[in-house]
């Protein structure tokens, strides 16, 4: 993390972070070493926001021996501003949790850390808050957290190539720096000095000011940097430069904490009579003005953030009860500093202080904690929390049909997947279906054209034409499985499939029985054909089909198939499919088809050694063998195929079994009709030969 992200006011900025909850072991690339960072203020919630503020404005480095693990920073100089920022954040969270319009039913929690104005500690805490003190993952090109600053104005942070995830609720210094140069030019000050905070805020802001000033004809006598942790010698050197200068106008691009340090040193030298031009960092800060007892800053002008008012925020900030949830040591320090007293059992080294009762009233206190001059900054904190809340509300309002976009800040509709006519697989299956339909129509035309020939009449022409009609329906019913599923298409596809295939198998079964009966009718004294004549054949087909119709009606009445959106199969897309409704109904339909197919296969197998010239049973046996093989392999393939491929498997099974019946039963006859007409005679049909083994 670059120090550019940890700018200004000693890390007194809001860093709102969604705590990452994804813990996929295969993505683990590193683990943060060292002791875990414990938040100074925390509350559990469904979603946890992280806040990074400076409850202390300075720190002391502990002496490292390089023999033991380095000790943590020793934070010093309690900073009431940090507590005010934290209170503003808690106020916004409390409002959102009590709201019925934004994030209803979702509780926001928080973890707020103290960085003591240290960039190094800020980096550590930022990583801890972003990763939940656990692990660091390698994201894609998109950062998994969104820091939102209320006070980081550096223009450098506007570079989205370097800081793609950084957001803020305060304008960039690009505009403030140029406006300061225009302000100096307006008053005719062309010879000025410049002082800046030695961080990205001050250095970048002053660089823009310098460029603009040169364009406007303003000259800088000197430009020096200071930082609140600089040694006294360096601060003294800055004061000496000011004293030795001839310019009486000083442009100060400083944070309020750095300005406080500088004011303290300038007061010691009583350096008055300068015209100060300031930034929003200190120009309207009450604490800075209160420290200026020697009137160093009299007449200072500058730019500030527009005023703001949020109903109830002032009262909430001054209510210190929420802060009692902080670590005991921090709350003790805060309470004792705020009320200038000492709590019982306190480790404070302060002497000559009254004992705290624990019931002190903040209304009688006049210090930087009760000062509301920074309300515009508090409002920026408030807006930052609401920005996250609204983003969460929008994201969580997305239903299962959405994914987050590449930047993870908006909902994008998931792709709906179903077997379409327009894709290659759908087009091929459609072509196969139409080809089968046309092929069946051609066979039907041939049979109709040669309907008076012996081979057509000998094979029960009525059942043959009914079988061809049912095969046409079988080929066409496969088309109902393609396209976007709807309520009607889901009910039609399974019932049409079930009924047409039963009609088809019933015709084949009728033809098989006719073959058996016809052969037995040639035996002396047999009258078996009167029991299975044309009328009985039609009734048997009708009866077998009606049973399937009844099963389908019961299925559609009790629990029909319906369109269903499958979100579990694939995370990135929605599978549109037809749910079975009643699995019993589906397997009853399929089971009944299988029962008829097995019965037909057994009868055809028994009739396989009848004389060849009148042996249609051999071809029926082949067709039923293909039919059963297709549907037996269909079951595991259907169950294991994901998404639209399961539909493709079902269509393939329908087409394969239909082609098997058409080719095995009718193509040999068409071959004789068209290419071997000499065999299409009554004499040839009635001829007898020795039976052959199958």
TrEMBL record:
Gene3D superfamilies: 3.40.50.2300
Major site of localization recorded for this protein: membrane
Membrane spanning residue stretches: 424-450, 462-483, 495-519, 539-558, 586-607, 619-639, 651-675
Domain G-protein coupled receptors family 3 profile: 425-689
GO cellular component: plasma membrane
SUPFAM superfamilies: Periplasmic binding protein-like I
Transmembrane helix among keywords: yes
A molecular function GO annotation: G protein-coupled receptor activity
InterPro entries found in the cross-reference section: ANF_lig-bd_rcpt (IPR001828), GPCR_3 (IPR000337), GPCR_3_C (IPR017978), GPCR_3_Ca_sens_rcpt-rel (IPR000068), GPCR_3_CS (IPR017979), Peripla_BP_I (IPR028082)
Cleavable signal peptide: 1-25
Pfam families cross-referenced by the UniProt entry: 7tm_3, ANF_receptor
Annotated keywords: Cell membrane, G-protein coupled receptor, Glycoprotein, Membrane, Receptor, Signal, Transducer, Transmembrane, Transmembrane helix
Bilayer disposition of the protein: Multi-pass membrane protein
Compartments where found: Cell membrane
Protein name: G-protein coupled receptors family 3 profile domain-containing protein
Species of provenance: Sparus aurata (Gilthead sea bream)
């Amino acid at each position: 993390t670059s120090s550019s992200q940890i700018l200004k006011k000693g890390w007194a900025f809001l860093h709102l972070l969604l705590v990452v909850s994804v813990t996929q072991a295969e993505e683990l690339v590193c683990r943060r070493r060292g002791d875990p960072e414990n938040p100074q203020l925390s509350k559990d919630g469904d979603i946890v926001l992280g806040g990074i503020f400076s409850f202390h404005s300075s720190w002391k480095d502990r002496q490292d021996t390089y023999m033991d693990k380095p000790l943590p920073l020793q934070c010093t100089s309690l900073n009431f501003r940090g507590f005010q920022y934290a209170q503003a954040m808690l106020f916004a969270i409390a409002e959102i949790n009590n709201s019925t319009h934004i994030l209803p039913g979702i509780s926001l929690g928080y973890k707020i850390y103290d960085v003591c104005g240290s960039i190094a500690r800020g980096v550590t805490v930022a990583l801890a808050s972003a990763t939940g003190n656990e692990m660091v993952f390698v994201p894609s090109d998109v950062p998994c957290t969104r820091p939102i600053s209320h006070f980081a104005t550096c223009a450098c942070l506007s570079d989205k190539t370097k800081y793609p995830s950084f957001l803020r609720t305060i304008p960039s210094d690009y505009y403030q720096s140029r406006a300061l140069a225009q302000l100096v030019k307006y008053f005719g000050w062309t010879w000025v000095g410049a002082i800046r905070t030695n961080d990205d805020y001050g250095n970048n802001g002053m660089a823009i000011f310098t460029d603009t000033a040169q364009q406007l004809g303003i000259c800088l006598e000197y430009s020096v940097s200071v930082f609140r942790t600089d040694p006294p010698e360096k601060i003294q050197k800055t004061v000496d430069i000011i004293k030795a200068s001839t310019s009486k106008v000083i442009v100060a691009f400083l944070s309020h904490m750095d300005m406080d340090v500088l004011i303290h040193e300038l007061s010691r030298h009583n350096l008055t009579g300068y015209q100060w031009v300031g930034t929003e960092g200190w120009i309207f800060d009450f604490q800075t003005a209160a420290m200026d007892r020697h009137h160093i800053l009299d007449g200072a002008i500058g730019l500030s953030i527009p005023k703001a008012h949020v109903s109830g925020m002032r009262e909430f900030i001054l209510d210190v009860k929420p802060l009692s949830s902080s670590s005991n040591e921090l709350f003790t320090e805060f309470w004792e500093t705020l009320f200038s007293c000492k709590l019982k059992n306190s480790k404070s080294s302060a002497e000559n202080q009254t004992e705290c009762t624990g019931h002190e009233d903040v209304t009688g206190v006049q210090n930087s904690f009760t000062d509301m001059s920074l309300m515009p900054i508090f409002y920026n904190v408030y807006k930052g929390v609401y920005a996250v809340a609204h983003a969460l509300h929008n994201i969580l309002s997305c239903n299962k049909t959405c994914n987050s976009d590449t930047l993870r800040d908006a909902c994008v509709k998931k792709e709906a997947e179903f077997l379409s006519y327009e894709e290659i697989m759908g087009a091929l299956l459609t072509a196969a279906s139409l080809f089968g339909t046309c092929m069946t129509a051609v066979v039907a035309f041939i049979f109709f054209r040669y309907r008076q020939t012996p081979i057509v009449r000998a094979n029960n022409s009525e059942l043959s034409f009914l079988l061809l009609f049912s095969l046409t329906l079988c080929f066409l019913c496969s088309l109902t499985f393609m396209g976007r599923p709807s309520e009607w298409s889901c009910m039609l596809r399974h019932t049409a499939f079930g009924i047409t295939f039963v009609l088809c198998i019933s015709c084949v079964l009728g033809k098989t029985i006719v073959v058996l009966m016809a052969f037995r009718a040639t035996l002396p004294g047999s009258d078996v054909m009167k029991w299975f004549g044309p009328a009985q054949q039609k009734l048997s087909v009708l009866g077998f089909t009606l049973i399937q119709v009844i099963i389908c009606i019961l299925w559609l009445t009790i629990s029909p198939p319906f369109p269903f959106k499958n979100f579990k199969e694939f995370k990135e897309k929605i599978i549109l499919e037809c749910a079975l409704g009643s699995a019993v109904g589906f397997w009853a339909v399929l089971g009944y088809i299988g029962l008829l197919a097995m019965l037909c296969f057994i009868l055809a197998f028994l009739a396989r050694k009848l004389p060849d010239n009148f042996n249609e049973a051999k071809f029926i046996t082949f067709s039923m063998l293909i039919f059963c093989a297709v549907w037996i392999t269909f079951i595991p393939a259907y169950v294991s195929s994901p998404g639209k491929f399961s539909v493709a498997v079902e269509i393939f099974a329908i087409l394969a079994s239909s082609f098997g019946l058409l080719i095995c039963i009718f193509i040999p006859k068409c071959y004789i009709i068209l290419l071997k007409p000499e065999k299409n005679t009554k004499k040839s049909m009635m001829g007898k030969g020795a039976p052959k083994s199958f």
